[in-house]
Write a structure and sequence with these properties.
Layout: H1 2-9, E1 13-17, H2 26-42, E2 45-51, H3 57-61, H4 83-89, E3 107-112, H5 123-132, H6 147-157
Parallel strand pairs: 1-2, 2-3
């Protein structure tokens, strides 16, 4: 939750809250599209916040029907910098001089909360990550903790 709050307020980050897509709907998809385009256009880090639940991204969200709002390219390195993808997700008022601008600094970061008290993902969660997040096997994983988490870990070990 701390990282989500940080992304909401940090000027160099853009939050894409996927928890709003537990029930796929046009409003949440459009909000997702705006977050993706805003991060690309202004060279921000796009935080894809999954919360504590991984939706069926490949089968229900990143579908052909939704490619103009939540493209599968989000889950591929450089997949959003493709001309056809940009043509689909940028609207006229998103363009600058008719161009699909992507500024330097644009990155994608996926955040998923731990599902255990030992600050690691369970084997079930790891299976979910591989089956529900497209191209997950290509992603680099980094464990993140808040100061409060570190204190709990140290207290438990000592």
């Amino acid at each position: 939750e701390a990282l989500k709050t940080f992304a909401e307020y940090a000027k160099e980050w853009q939050l894409l809250d996927v928890t709003k897509l537990r029930r796929v709907n046009e409003e949440a998809l459009e909000e997702s599209r705006r977050a993706i385009v805003n991060a690309m256009k202004w060279g921000k880090w796009l935080m894809v916040y999954l919360g504590d639940h991984i939706p069926e991204l490949g089968e229900k969200i990143c579908t052909t029907k939704n490619r103009d709002k939540f493209p599968i390219g989000l889950w591929q390195h450089g997949g959003l910098n493709n001309g056809m993808v940009k043509e689909k997700i940028y609207r006229e008022d998103d363009k600058e001089g008719g161009m699909h601008v992507v500024r330097e600094g644009f990155r994608v970061c996926v955040v998923l909360m731990y599902d255990s008290l030992v600050y690691e993902h369970s084997s079930m969660r790891k299976d979910d990550m591989n089956s529900k997040i497209p191209n997950f096997h290509y992603m680099e994983q980094m464990r993140c903790f808040t100061d409060q988490d570190i204190k709990k870990i140290l207290a438990a070990s000592g």
